Structures are given as C-alpha cells and as structure tokens.
From TrEMBL:
It is an enzyme of class 2 (transferase). Pfam families: Abhydrolase_1. It comes from Pseudomonas asuensis. This is Homoserine O-succinyltransferase. Its EC number is 2.3.1.46. Keywords: Acyltransferase, Amino-acid biosynthesis, Cytoplasm, Methionine biosynthesis, Transferase. Transfers a succinyl group from succinyl-CoA to L-homoserine, forming succinyl-L-homoserine. Pathway: Amino-acid biosynthesis; L-methionine biosynthesis via de novo pathway; O-succinyl-L-homoserine from L-homoserine: step 1/1. PANTHER family: HOMOSERINE O-ACETYLTRANSFERASE. Gene3D superfamilies: 1.10.1740.110, alpha/beta hydrolase. Substrate binds at residues 227, 357. Homodimer.
C-alpha cells in the first residue's frame, strides 16, 4: 500500500454506477431490458468535450484502471503505468473513462446480478454478449456522459478488439484507435485454449449449470484450471524460463503427483487460487465466447479492408515480438487491411521478452511509443 500517493498517480478514485433503462438489443437476438455500467473517470472533460479517451479492458479486466480506491490498497489500477499525470494517457490533457463491460463481475450488470424478471441472479440465463454489443453499450455510455466523439478509444488484447469495433460500428464517434497486442479474429488455436478453459468450468461439479449462486458455492477448481491454462498463454517461453526455469520449491523431489515441487507450479496454482476468489465463472464463459465470436470481416466475406472502409479514425497498432497468443502477424493483418483501405495507420512491433502480458507492463520502448502517439492527438 502507498504511504504517500505517487506524484504521477491520478490519486484516490471512486467508481460510479450509471443505470440504463432503455432496452439494449443484442446480437444473439435477445435484449437486456435494463442494466448498470460501472465506470471510473480520471482527469477533467474540457469545455468542448473533445479530450475524452475510452479505455477498453481485456478478458479479466475491469473499470479500476488507475489510481487507488483507498490508502490501504496494495496496488493501483491495472493500467496505472499508462494512465496519469505525465504518463502516456496524460490526465492533465485527457479525460479518461474506464468501464467494467456488460457481463462482468465488478459491478456492471452480469450473470451474478439480479434478473429483474425473477429477482434471482441471472446465472446461465444471462444472454451471450459480443464485442459489438459491448461497443453499442459503450456508445450509450458516451451519450450519458455528453461525449459525441472520443479523442481516442484504447485497449489491449480483447480491449483492442473493442477499439477496432468502435471504428466500424460508430466511425463518426472516434478520432483515434489504439489496438495493442490484439487481433482481427481469434485463431483456431486460441479458440481451442478458450474451449479447454470453458470445459474446466462447465465440468466442475460445483458449477450446477451456472446456478452455483443459489447453491452458495463456487466452481473453484474449474476457475483455477481455466486461469492456469490462460496464464500459460499470456507469458512467453523466455519469460517463464527467466522467471522460474526449473527451480524447485522444495529441497528435493517427492516423486508423487500431488506435491508442488517446481516454482512454476507454485506460481500457476497461486494465480488460479487468487483468480477463483475474485472472478465469476459465468463471466469467464461469456468473455471467452465474445472473443471467439469476434470476426468483423465476416460481414464482408472475410475482406478486412472492406470492413474498415467506412472507418474515419487514425490508427495506432502495436504488437510484441514474443506474444504468441496474439502474435505480431495478427497485428500486421490489421495494418495491411488498413493500408489497403487507405487509412492512416502507425505500427510498431516492440522487442519484449514478456509475451502477451507485455501490454500491461512499463516497458520503456513501449511507453515511449505510447507517449509519442498520444502527443499527436489534438484536443
């Protein structure tokens, strides 16, 4: 916990809850009759409302992107390295909005929320959500905040998919798009990893068909396995090797299947344990399905250039050399399509050993490029 708030922090922040009573039609054919979105804001909206930046989170993310909720916080928001005074998204210049997406488990309406039709948690009855649905709900959020156009929509991984979708669904409402460590759609391998994670949850005996709330239990084993599988894909082989190697946690091998003998085993179990205590199993299923379904070019016979034809934003695409979950080749697909569509695009592939998680880390070359692009955005 900080004894003193750092000078480059946005400081103490308080989440806000916005309620929407107008039904939201969804791609699955259903709708949400009403819903809440939880947000945090940093910085000040300028007089002509032209300096707003939307932060879109990744799979396990949420609205708390920067600053602290209290002086007792052990750590700041998940993107504190990039949001704050003097940081890439400089809150002395920009008004920053970060939200917890629909279907989430950090205050926005999701599977754990009460279904107004029954008074009980939605559970498995919560509708399937797509990236396009998230963007449409975010457009209503912008309306509620009086923001006609975002100076930039920014996100990494799944957040980058949302940033791209904004330029397709609402081209007049975003001036700059930053998609970091992202992809135009998931590969078969990525869908396969997501399915293994979902099966770990679905087959947990405590899942109860998604109605575990009513049983007052948590499918902990399934969530732990899902997180462990996912976390392996977020790190590069080099990063794992440098961090853990084949170091033992114990002094000697026990020659059994139950002991935690290697440091990497201990790390993965810790990650799974921590995740299972804070994340909702139904939300995990929803988020991974939204990732699987994302394929905006499918509406244009797979032609990504045609998909971006109506976009009016300038684009900044960044990737990391050792990211094998969303490899640089996937970012280059986006860049090539944008060039073919005659859009303004900047691209940087950053040499970093950390793998997919690099977009969350304060890597100097990454932060320098981030600052450089954000400085180009007129407000």
């Amino acid at each position: 916990m900080p004894s003193v708030i750092p000078h480059d922090s946005v400081g103490l922040v308080t989440p806000q809850v916005l309620h929407f009573s107008e039904p939201l039609p969804l791609a699955c054919g259903r709708s949400l009759t009403e819903y809440d979105l939880v947000i945090e804001t940093y910085g000040e909206l300028n007089e002509n409302r032209s300096n707003a930046v939307l932060i879109c989170h990744a799979l396990s993310g949420h609205h708390h992107a920067a600053g602290y909720h209290s002086m007792e916080d052990r750590k700041p928001g998940w993107w504190d390295s990039c949001i704050g005074p003097g940081k890439p998204i400089d809150t002395r210049r920009f008004f920053v909005v970060s939200l917890n997406n629909l279907g989430g488990c950090n205050g926005s309406t999701g599977p754990g929320s009460a279904n107004p039709a029954t008074g009980r948690p939605y559970g498995a009855d919560f509708p399937v959500i797509t990236v396009e649905d998230w963007v449409n709900s975010q457009a209503r959020l912008a309306d509620a905040l009086g923001i006609a156009q975002w100076a930039a929509v920014v996100g990494g991984s799944m957040g980058g998919m949302q940033a791209l979708q904004w330029t397709i669904s609402h081209p007049d409402r975003v001036r700059h798009c930053m998609a970091i460590a992202s992809a135009p759609k998931l590969s078969a391998q990525n869908i396969a990893f997501n399915e293994v994670a979902r099966q770990a949850i679905l087959t947990d005996e405590e899942f109860h068909g998604g109605r575990f709330y009513e049983q007052n239990v948590v499918p902990k084993r399934g969530l732990m396995l899902a997180r462990m599988v996912g976390h392996i894909t977020y790190l590069s082989d080099d990063a794992m090797g440098q961090k853990f190697g084949r170091e033992l946690k114990t002094d000697k091998l026990n020659y059994d299947f139950h002991s935690v003998e290697f440091q990497v085993e201990s790390y993965l179990r810790y990650q799974g344990e921590e995740f299972s205590g804070r994340f909702d199993a139904n939300t995990y299923l929803l988020m991974t399905k939204a990732l699987d379904y994302f394929d905006p070019a499918s509406a244009h016979d797979g032609d990504l250039a045609k998909t971006f034809a109506a976009a009016k934003a300038d684009f900044c695409i960044m990737s990391f050399t050792t990211d094998w979950r969303f490899s640089p080749a996937r970012s280059r697909e986006i860049v090539d399509a944008l060039i073919a569509a005659k859009k303004n695009v900047s691209y940087l592939d950053i040499d970093a050993p950390q793998g997919h998680d690099a977009f969350l880390l304060p890597i100097p070359r990454y932060l320098e490029a981030f600052v450089s692009y954000m400085n180009r955005i007129a407000v």
